[in-house]
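Thread amino acids onto this structure.
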């Protein structure tokens, strides 16, 4: 079973060697409603910490000709779709307060994140970008004030257990404390007001940490799901897929993904390569097809299977920006979106044959794919 909430996995992880070469972030994504027009708009908010032991009195940005390694809190926020952009505000570690143990919190001037609330203000001008070319940001302004309630978790099991966290065994860790999360509050984005409601936000919250990024990088998640079999919306369901090419103890593993489908609280479909006894098989791809980016994923264990096909219009997506703890921007084409759509098919094996259990329409899908730039 994977729906196990664990706030210790959600706490700040930049200890030991990760303190000088490590990152840790809390990601939130959701749908809001334009107060004036009534139209849906997908948004994201992220609190990204990197290299606390290298802290200076002001934030140190990477991608520097002198080879400086980054050290900061970056508050990343923005939207997908029409008017898409990502906005970054940076703080020195000396300017913030981090409650490192569970429940976590990150407190900075005008910006705050915890298990139960988010609020902040990020404004980036043309002058800011000219003065700090390493900001990796667009120009714009966003404010947010949200309550957070995490309902369904994706706990990856012993791969992120206390022992493997202590050993710093993996290059990149993952925990989704809220693969279904209820958000409530308001957003102001470039002067437009948006309302965020529990019943229409289709929210998601997870975290990643480590000392490097995976390539390829895959993420798909949604809880806006409609069952073609039951002919109704699934109110207590969510799916989440992530990974690419994990690295453990410095050894790269073949292309692997973690994937789960929480099906109305009654049944669970789990495809976790770390649980080798489940006999996991995974095949996946991510490609441009005309004006859309398309993901195909098939995952199997001994008894169950899941086929996922998700599409997202490229015009609605961002190339999301990060630098690693060495200060290198590994991705320039990390496709990232929040309004993907597609289908998920669930199967059970009966008498050595796969039987279709349900075909599910997915909307408001968080989606991501990228590979390191060629060197």
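Threaded sequence (375 positions):
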């Amino acid at each position: 079973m994977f729906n196990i909430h664990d706030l210790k996995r959600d706490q700040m992880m930049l200890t030991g060697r990760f303190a000088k070469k490590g990152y840790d972030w809390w990601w939130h994504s959701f749908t809001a409603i334009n107060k004036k027009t009534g139209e849906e708009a997908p948004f994201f908010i992220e609190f990204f910490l990197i290299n606390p032991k290298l802290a200076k009195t002001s934030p140190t940005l990477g991608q520097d000709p002198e080879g400086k390694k980054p050290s900061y809190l970056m508050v990343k926020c923005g939207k997908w779709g029409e008017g898409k952009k990502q906005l970054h505000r940076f703080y020195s570690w000396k300017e913030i307060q981090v409650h490192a143990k569970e429940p976590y919190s990150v407190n900075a001037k005008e910006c705050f994140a915890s298990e139960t609330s988010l609020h902040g203000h990020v404004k980036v001008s043309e002058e800011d970008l000219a003065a700090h070319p390493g900001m990796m940001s667009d120009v714009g302004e966003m404010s947010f004030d949200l309550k957070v309630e995490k309902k369904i978790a994706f706990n990856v099991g012993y791969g992120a257990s206390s022992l493997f966290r202590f050993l710093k065994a993996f290059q990149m860790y993952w925990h989704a404390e809220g693969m279904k999360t209820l958000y409530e509050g308001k957003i102001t984005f470039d002067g437009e007001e948006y309302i965020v409601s529990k019943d229409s936000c289709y929210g998601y919250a997870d975290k990643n940490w480590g000392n490097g990024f995976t390539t390829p990088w895959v993420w798909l998640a949604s809880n806006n799901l409609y069952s073609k079999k039951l002919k109704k919306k699934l109110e207590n369901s969510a799916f989440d897929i992530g990974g690419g090419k994990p690295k453990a103890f410095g050894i790269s593993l073949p292309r692997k993904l973690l994937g789960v489908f929480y099906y109305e609280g009654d049944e669970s479909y789990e495809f976790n390569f770390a649980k080798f006894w489940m006999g996991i098989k995974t095949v996946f791809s991510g490609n441009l097809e005309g004006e859309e980016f398309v993901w195909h994923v098939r995952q199997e264990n001994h008894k169950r299977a899941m086929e996922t096909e998700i599409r997202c219009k490229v015009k609605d997506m961002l190339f999301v920006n990060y630098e690693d703890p060495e200060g290198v921007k590994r991705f320039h084409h990390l496709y990232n979106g929040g309004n993907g759509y597609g289908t998920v098919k669930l199967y059970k094996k009966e008498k050595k044959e796969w039987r279709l259990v349900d075909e599910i329409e997915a909307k408001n899908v968080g989606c991501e794919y990228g590979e390191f730039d060629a060197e």
